[in-house]
Write a structure and sequence with these properties.
Elements (H helix, E strand, L loop, with lengths): L2 H6 L5 H39 L1
Protein name: Threonine/Serine exporter ThrE domain-containing protein
Keywords: Membrane, Transmembrane, Transmembrane helix
Amino acid sequence: MFSPVFITGSYYDVNKVMGNLLSAEMVVRTLAVVIGLLTMYDGVKTFLKNKIS
């Protein structure tokens, strides 16, 4: 909820920062997907490593 504020440095104001907020939202969503995929990959890798050993 506050991540666009941290990225753009501005609070939600449609008249001033709508483009910046859309860009920030895209960046945050992309990072969330990438971090989620990396977490799942690491979990599966660790699970398979422990199962084989």
